[in-house]
Amino acid sequence: MVKEMSKHVVQSWRWLLVLCLLMAYPLAASAEKINWVDEHYDFTRVKKAIVYDVVVVDKSEIDNDLIEAVMLEEYLKTAARPPYKMIRADKTVAISPGSPLEGADIYVMAEMLKWHNDSYVVDAYTSWETRTSTRKVKWSDGTWHEERYDYTVPVYHPARTVPTSTVRVRFDVYDAKTGKKVMSRDELRKRDSSDHGQQGIFGRISKKFFDDLGDKIKNE
């Protein structure tokens, strides 16, 4: 009975420690997304879409023109995912000289609003971790047996610097005939220790948006 109570106390302390750590340190990822769709718009009739280049508003940390070039290339690949014929903005005049937008059903615009690299410091702390070992115990009949048991030890974690990457992108979709906005999304994502940095985050934001647009065209 005493052994069971001790085990229960140890488990309770473990859960308490986990909760304290979750409250003390920031999450490794966060996202904020504002999404709006005109529920009365018939997306299923969309067959052609003009996709404009991304307008990079925040260039304060983009010190290499190759970054913009690679970003745009990946963006256009992602923009081609929905089930429509994608028309590049520089081709619209050739398709419909009198009114460039007449050759499409919708047009898509995007703005890079935030492209930021930062870091924060996680203070040093000590946690209690469980270890397992074995020991010899003598039973009442005089025989010796081996049993496993758990014990806790303090583990010191030194302070560390965690890099962060933040990207915010806004997308707007308009009906090409009326100029009326039919879909918008403003998304900000922040990742700690991201392997691909801002470029990878931008790619995932774009992919999610165009996948969602594609779903509306297919399933509305």
UniProtKB/TrEMBL annotation:
Keyword Signal assigned: yes
Keyword list, A-Z: Signal
Annotated signal sequence range: 1-31
Name by which UniProt lists this protein: DUF4468 domain-containing protein
Organism listed in the record: Selenomonas ruminantium
Classification lineage: Bacteria, Bacillati, Bacillota, Negativicutes, Selenomonadales
